[in-house]
C-alpha cells in the first residue's frame, strides 16, 4: 500500500500542478469571461491551491494507512475529471474561433455564449459542473486533513524520513564472483592510471609541488540499474592485491539515500582512524581533521550507492579530499548516469548484465545449490527460461534462484516461472524492493511518464520524440515559462535515461530493461492495462490507459471496454482488423469520448468512422501505414489535435475543413500527400513541414509560408520556378522563421532552361540569421544573393550547392568563418575551384570546416589557392567522387582523419602540410613530388577507381600515416606498387581491403601487422601468392575474406589454429583444396564458402574434434561441404543456413540429412538460385525451431515434402517457384494467417 500511496499521491500532485496552470490559462479565462464563470473559476483555482497544499503535507508522511491511500485515489479521480472539464472549456473557445473564421462573422461574445449553451444546455449547467468538481475537491481535502491529524498522533504518521539506510561494507558477500573479470580489470586499470602520481615517501616540498598541478581529485563513477552488481564489483576491486599495493589508504563508506556531508565526512575519518568521533563537532572541524589525515597518503575512497544529485553538496564533500596526494581516487557506485557525469572526472563505466554463460552458471548455483542440475533435467529447462527473462541481473538471480531453491519440485518451479516477478514474495533486499527505490526518487511528473510505459510490451523500441508527444497528449508535461513544451518533455526523457529507466539501443531508439519494465508494471496496475498474447485480464475499474498487443482477440471483445468512459489512451500494436472492426470502433468512440491518444499504426483498416469526431480531447492520432484513402470530415472538429500521423497512407485528398486544426503541431505524411493540402498556411502551430511544393494556384503559392513562424527543423521548398518575382518570393517571409535549422531551395531539375528570374527569386528567399544548414539545388541564376554572406548568416554550419548552372569555368566560394560542412555537387561546367577570402595573407580559410565533399564534377581539372592562405586547418573528412579530369589536389591539413577518393583523375596521392605551410599554389600540387616526410592524422582511407594511380609505395609510409586504422584500395586497375613488406610497420592498422588490382606482381612477400583484425583480398593479381604465409602472425584477426584468389591452394591448420576467426568468407577460389582441421574453425560464428570446386577435404580429418561450437550462420553452395567441414557432427548453435547458387539435384541426402535434423537451434533457412534442385529436404518438417523459410529462384521444385513444413514457421517467403509449389506455399501461408502467425 505504501507504493500505492506514492503513486496516488505524487501523480495526483502532478495533475494538480497542471490544473493550477490550466485554470489560469488565457483560453480558460477567456471562456470564463464570456460565459460569466469568472468567479466560479477563481474559486476553483483557490480550491486547487488549497488541495495541493494539503496534498504536499500528506506526501511527507511515510504511511501504509489504507484510508489515506483511498482518499488519494479519489483525489486523483477528481483531478482528472477537473482536467477533462477545463479541457471542454478550451475546446469551446477553439470551436468558436474556427466557426467564426469559417463563417467570416465574429461577434465573439454572442458566439461563445451560444456555444456554451449548446454544450451544457443552459448556463446553469456549466456553473453546476464547476461547482460539483469544487465540492469533490473540498470534501477530499477535508478528509485528508482529518486523516493527517490522526496520523500525526501515531508514530506511523511521523513526517517522512528517508528509508532505513541500506548498509554495505567492503567485505565480499559472495564466495565467488561470476563474469566480472573484464569489468574488474578495466576499473583497476583506470584506478591505477596516474600520469603524475606521488609516491609515498616523497619529500613534502615535492608533494606540495605535485599537488598544485591539479586541483581536483580523480573520480570514477560506476553506473548501472539496481541489482546489476555495482557493489559486488566495487568489493571485488577494493580487495584486489594490486589495488591494495597501490593505495596506502583504502576507505569504504556506504552513502545510500542520505547524502549528509557532515555524516559522510565523519564516517570517512572514522574509517581512517578506527576511532569514534563526537557527534557535536561542526563540519569545519571535521574537514580540518580529514585534510590532516589524508594529506600525506594516496587513498582510494569507495562511496557506495550514492543518490545525491546536488552538485553543491558533492563539492562540499570533496573539498578536503582534494588535499590527498596525486593518484588518489574516488570510486562511486550510482544508478543515475546524469549524476555520474556531474560528479565524475573520469570516463563513466556503465555496468550491464552478466554474459549468458556466466549468468547461467551463477543462476544455477542459486537455484540448485549443492544439487547437480543434470539430475533434475525437467527443472533445468524451467530454470533456463526463467534465467533468460532476467537479462543478466545478479540480484534477480539471487532473488528468484533463492525462491526456486526452497523446493526442488517441478510444480513449485512452474508456479514461479508463470508468476509476475513483482507478485513473488521477496525480502527487503530482493530485486523489486531495490528497484523501487529508483522509482520512489522520481518527481510526480516523472512517475506519470514512467508508469505510462507499462502499456508498451517488453523489448519495445522507444523513439524519444514519439514518446514525448504522447506524454504531451496526456498532459504529463508541465509547461515552463516560454520554453517549448517539446523541449521540456525532452528534458524529462533524458532525466529518465540518465537514471537508467531507458537504455540507448541504436541511433534513434531506446529500450527499457526487462526488470525495469517489471517495476513499471508493478506500480501501474490501477489505471494501465496491456492485453498481450491473448491473455485476457480483469478490466480495472479506473482504467485510463489501454494497449492491445495480440493478434487472436476478437474485435467485438473490445466492446467490453464500453464501460471504460474515462479511457485516455487506446493503442493497438498488432493487426486485429476484420470487417467488423470499424463498426466496433464506431461504438467505442461513442462511449469512450475522453481518448487523448489513439494509435492504429500498420492496421488493415480502410476507413475511420465519423464518430471519431466525438473524441474532443484527442491530441495524438496515428493511422500510419493503413489503407485509408480519405479522412472523415468529422476529424476536422478535433480542435485539440496536436499530432496526426498518416505516413504511408494512400490519401487521395484532405477534408475541406482540414485547416481548422489550428493546434496541430505535427502532420506526418508522405511528400506527395502533404502537397495535396491546400491553405496549409492556416496551420500556424505546425512545427514540421519537410516539403512545400510551390504551385501556381490558390492555397499552394509561396505566400502560404508567411505565418508559419513555428516551423523548425528542416524545410525543403520545391518548384521555385513557379515563383515569378522577388516580391512574390519574399511573401514566404523566411526571415521570420527563427526556429528553422535547415533550408533547401530547389528548382525543378527537368525544367530545361532557366526562366531568367532565378536571381530575383533567390534574392527574395532570404532566411533567418539562425539558419545552420543551407542547400541550393538546380539554381539557374548567375548572381550570388546578397544575403549569402557571413554577416547575414552568422552561425551557418553547412552549405550544399548542387547543379548550380550559372557557375562558370572558374568558381570561387565565399568564406564563412563558422562553416563545418561544405558539399559541392554536379557543377559540370566548372574547371577550376578556389576560395574567396576576405582579409589579408595569413588568414585561415574556412577555419572550422570539418567535412568537405565534392562530387560529380566531370570537367573539374584544377584546385587553385591564394598565396599565404591556409585552407581547412581543422578538416576531418575529405570525400572527392566522380571527378575524372582532376589533375591534382592541394596538400592535406594535418587534422584530416578520413580521406576518400573515388573515380578521380590524379596520378599521385596528395601530401600533408605542416603548420607553417600555406595553401599551395599550382606548383605544389601532388604531381610535383614523389613522397612526403610530413606526418598525417588520417585513420581511414579509401582509394577507389582511380585509373591513373600506379605507384602507392612511396606514399603509404608508416611514419607518414602513423594513425591509419582502415585502408581500402579498390578497382585501381593500373596500380603495380604497394609497400608489401612495410605493411607490417602500420601498427594501428586493423582493416585492410585490396580489391580489383590485377596488376600487382608477385616479386615481394606481403607482410602484415599483428594488429590486423579484418582482411579482404579480392582479385589482386599475384598478391594472393603470399597466402597463407602472410597470415602466420595475425593473432588479432577475426574476419578473413578471400575472393577470386586463384593462387591459394590451402589454409592449413598451423595457420588458422592460432587465429580466433569469427567470420570466414571464401569464394571463387578455384584451386583451394583443403582447410585446416575442424579444431582450427572452432571459433567461427559466420562461415561463407562458395564456388570452390576443388575443396573436398579437411586437413587431418581423423582429428576433427567437435567442430565449431559457436557457428551461427552458414552460407554454402554445395551441401556436400557439410560433410567435408563437419562430418556427421551437428552444429547445435547454428541459427541461419543459406544454400545459394547450388547446382545440386537433391539437398541433404544420406548422412547429410542426419546433420540437418540435428540443427536444434536453426531459425532461418534460405534456398536461393538453386536452378537444378528437384525437391526440398524430406525431413524439413522435423526442424522444430525453424521460424523463417525463404525459397527463391528454385523453379524445378514441384511440391512440398510429403510431411509438409514445420509447425514452428512464422515467416514464409517465396519467389519465382514452380506453379504447383507456388500454389501449395500460398495455401500454407493462408493456414499460417488463420493461425495468427506473422506473414511478411
UniProtKB/TrEMBL annotation:
Domain called R13L1/DRL21-like LRR repeat region: residue spans: 702-827
PANTHER family for the chain: DISEASE RESISTANCE PROTEIN RGA3, PLANT BROAD-SPECTRUM MILDEW RESISTANCE PROTEIN RPW8
Keyword ATP-binding annotated: yes
Coiled-coil annotated residue ranges, if any: 55-92
One biological process term in Gene Ontology: innate immune response-activating signaling pathway
Keyword presence, ATP-binding: yes
Name of the molecule in the record: Disease resistance protein RGA2-like
Organism field: Phoenix dactylifera
Pfam families per record: LRR_R13L1-DRL21 (PF25019), NB-ARC (PF00931), Rx_N (PF18052), WHD_DRP (PF23559)
GO molecular function: ADP binding; ATP binding
The organism's place on the tree of life at top rank: Eukaryota
Domain called NB-ARC: residue spans: 208-369
InterPro entries: Apaf_helical, LRR_dom_sf, LRR_R13L1-DRL21, NB-ARC, P-loop_NTPase, Rx_N, WH-like_DNA-bd_sf, WHD_DRP
Record keywords, A-Z: ATP-binding, Coiled coil, Leucine-rich repeat, Nucleotide-binding, Plant defense, Repeat
Residues of the Disease resistance protein winged helix domain: 455-520
Family designation: Belongs to the disease resistance NB-LRR family.
Disease resistance N-terminal domain ranges (all copies): 16-102
